[in-house]
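Reopening closed ticket. The problem is back. First fold of the pair:
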Amino acid sequence: MGSRDNHDSRRMNMSTTKNFTIVEAVRDGLCSEMQRDDDVLVIGEDVGKNGGVFRATKGLFDEFGNSRVIDTPLAESGIIGTAIGMAAYGKIPITEIQFMGFIYPAFDQIVSHAARLRTRSRGHYSCPLVIRAPYGGGIRAPEHHSESSEAFFVHQPGLKVVVPSTPYDTKGLLASAIRDPDPVIFLEPKLIYRAFREEVPTDNYTVPLGEAAVRREGSDISVFTWGGMTSPTIEAAESLAEEGIEVEVIDLRTLSPLDEETIVESFRKTGRAAIVHEAPKTGGIGAEVIATIQEEVLMYQKAPIQRITGFDAPFPLHALEDYYLPNATRIKESIKKTINF
């Protein structure tokens, strides 16, 4: 069942915190896990002295050295292939792919090898590998820099797919991903990398994989989202509250495995739903959420379920970027359409 609070309960027992952005929470999470376990290492393009393209690994090279913070050539297939070998023989590599749009050269390594290693070896080997990638649009980046193709990896058995939306969750989910015995795709919403700050414990802690978070309670409609779309969804919900419409906002956090229990529980209460994601509509995770609702709680449905998404087109360049991405206004209007059905 998903958490009913924005924060893991263990937070209340931790007195030392720092005010972090999401990208700072990534860095702190990496550092904490590397201090905790000598087998954890970071590998990727410019992750060393340069600190990564978004500076998520800044300072790690100085603290841990070039045997644990490893710069690589510009070869995503080589990065992931090398990391799979490391994982099979006892290391815990955390790879950085600079942008999700650069992950495709490594697709074969991920789906043909990382995801299948446990099955192929009949359980003799696991693949404790984390693949970090900034994803999504909104930062005026060039072509291939604004992809949101999480559905490719959710479709592949053997992979977990995680997308945080707050600094607290980022550090806790990253720790859980690193400690997981199987490969995890960890997608970081670069649109909100530095958009806001939140108090984050400096101690080690985890946020469990596979559990959604109820960001806002509501009784009229359930809206499911994740990552960079969580903030505009909450903004739309708060605006609708002024009109007497109470929206329940569910941040899925983990797309694989999906928290079906929380989805079903929320829809059973409201009878209406919408899904917000910036990926293209066709074949997106929104369709899987709808299928889950149809299979489990169809008889509670009061209106057609809305998908508020990006368009079935390549992500556009600067001039059309704001039009492509769902915003609070588009989310609000689509929710009202469902409410007024």
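Second fold of the pair, where the issue appears:
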Amino acid sequence: MEQIGANKCFDGRQLRYSHASRVLGCDMTFSIFLPPQAEQGKVPVVYWLSGLTCTDENFVAKAGAQRYAAELGLAVVAPDTSPRGDGVPDDPDGAWDFGLGAGFYVNATREPWRKHYRMYDYIVDELPELINREFPVDGSRAGISGHSMGGHGALTVALKNPGRFKSATAFSPICSPLNCPWGEKALGNYLGPERDAWREYDTTALLAGASEQLPVLVDQGDADNFLQEQLKTHLLEKACADAGYPMTIRMQEGYDHSYFFIASFIGDHLAFHAGCLY
């Protein structure tokens, strides 16, 4: 692991590292904010999963999370959104919604993707093991959050790993990859045409069999231009009602899909996590 960035921020430290990932077969980068409380002992941690085209740096620079994380005593880890580097395949058409920057937080099973595109295992196992070993965080007090593709990742990872995370939140999540163009393209390529395999990475499908009802907060802007075609929050609301899952889903008037939306409510989300982790 090599430190490639360090800045003091709200009396904490905003750090960036690269490391060799055995799961993804390439070098990866991640950012971590350590609040000032980490100088005295281990602190809870929130994992942030970013959306399409992002790296680990978008959230760090745009969300304004550090102020709230410092006040609440939370470490915040932001990994990259896909494997990178020589030999890692990209969308053959050069599109932005698949391949590099679009790992979708799944384990690919199809060629040529399955060697490198195992973001699910990276987020669930490899990265937390590294974070717990190298930094003053308490891995038993972990939450997960994300935006868009990362909101999909946060919700599915939390639902598929009962007990691993104490809380989950999402901004503008892709609620049902089974039923939107982004999901059909990504899961069709990473997992193949058999749609039953996609259900393991679809929040609305996972809710029906959830064995744990952890606290979940979702914010969605009603002026989001992806809402109807790609995000489909109404399917999440229906799945929660059908499963009797007490998820808090808030429609925020006038907000779009941007980081301006995230910055407006990230304080709420981190306070939500802190309420579950302390």
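Update: turned out to be a display glitch only; the data is intact. The CA atoms of residues 27 and 147 lie 23 Å apart. The domain at 2-277 is CATH 3.40.50.1820 (Rossmann fold). Please close again.
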